Amino acid sequence: MKKANVGHPKGLYVLFLTEMWERFSYYGMRAMFVLYMVKCLSLAKEDASQIYGNYTGLVYLTPLLGGYLADRFWGNRRSILLGSAVMALGQFLMFVSACIYTSPTAYWLMFAGLGLLILGNGFFKPNISTMVGDLYAKNDSRRDSAYTIFYMGVNVGAMIAPLWCGFVSNGESPEGFKWSFLSAAVGMLIGGLVFYFFKDRYLHSPEGKPLGVKPEKKPEKKQGEANKRPAWFSAAMAVLCVALFAAFCVGGSDIIGAAIYSVSITIPVMIITDGSLTTIERKRIGVIYAITFFVIFFWAAYEQSGASLTFFADEQTDRNILGWEMPASYFQSFNPIFIVLLVPVFNILWDFLRRHGKEPAATMKQAIGLALLGVGYLVIAFGVDNLDPALKVSIMWLTTLYFMQTLGELCLEPIGLSIVNRLSPARFSSLLMGVWCLSSAAANKLAGVLSGLYPADGKITSFLGYQIADLSDFFMIFVWMSFAAAIVLALLSKRLEKLM
Length: 500
Description:
By secondary structure, the chain is mainly α. The protein has 17 helices and 4 strands. The chain has a two-stranded antiparallel ribbon. A two-stranded antiparallel ribbon has the order 3-4. Helix 1 packs parallel to helix 4 (76-99), helix 4 (76-99) runs antiparallel to helix 7 and helix 11 packs parallel to helix 14 (362-383). The two termini are 26 Å apart. Mean pLDDT is 87; it is low at 220-226.
């Protein structure tokens, strides 16, 4: 028995490599995306930020569909393979768009590519994350470290992608973006092929059964009753979704933002009211919803790296290193580089604290992560205070922000994935992983909205009555947001732990 719990199953490393190449594809394209829109398609920064937020928001909304179809009909394996193929095609359309960027057709090809990337990610993301947890028994203590290892795979891909795609872009020139997008397409194909050729050999449950195959129809009366929703309930959920959509539109959101926010509320309500849930299961799902809400504030700040922080790196950061000017996209490798270096340190730290009975509760770790993020933005807000727009700051300010952001991320994301997998009823595992992704959908859309407030060309903007006149004001938004969320989650931590 002890021997079985030593090390990790080989299937973890198949999923590690598959996810690594998918993240190479995603982050390689993301590193170039806003720069491509501004430099090649001549879009304003505010418009590019909105498109960026809509894209990254919808990327994390479609996992609900993929999770549902996998749980009910297709299984994880088919969904992952389909998602890989669709995303590779989407990246190829981005490549074609960049090849003809001077043509009006390039604009629409870009949107076609984005649509396929959004759809493909929906099939891929929730299913591969679920399969990591399914490699282990529910009470297996290796589960948290497995998700940390898996998360390192995510960041190996995210680390290599901006470096390679920045390199082949020929200094982020209009003529070079196509090679970055083609690299992303090839990376996605490699990830899909790794999964295809090794899934049958290594992806098995602790009992030796193949994971992720087409689900069997179970004649469980209780579960069957849960699927037969009364017509009035479906109508009520539709009315709720439409009412929320209208409310968000009236409140100033665009159509995509209103859709993301309304679905992010309606779907969780539908799941937690399922008649098959026991009281304990419903409480545990409530915990998932709570942590899902708080991580929105983390990712809204984190995702500035693909938009406002890219503008900041490109225009107001001194990137000259011994006579070589580092491409702005390279900054997006800093966070994953730090993660790859620090994952072993955090594993040792948590193991040490666990042995001495000092390990923080999972939700307290997440509160600490939010606080660390706030510290990072506080540092850079201080560094740019009263900065002349004509001047550039040292590379160390942005580096420090990404370092603190990494410390926060390692306290928050792998722990959250583990909580969702551990607390989810088996019949809702992929769907609830999709709900976890909803936090990223809402956060990414919010990130695009906030990035649109970036103070460029002397313009003064405001957010909820808070005036933004310079970069320091802009970065302080994320300071207050992160600290407020950290304090509230820390206060709720003990109660949430009792409900797990």
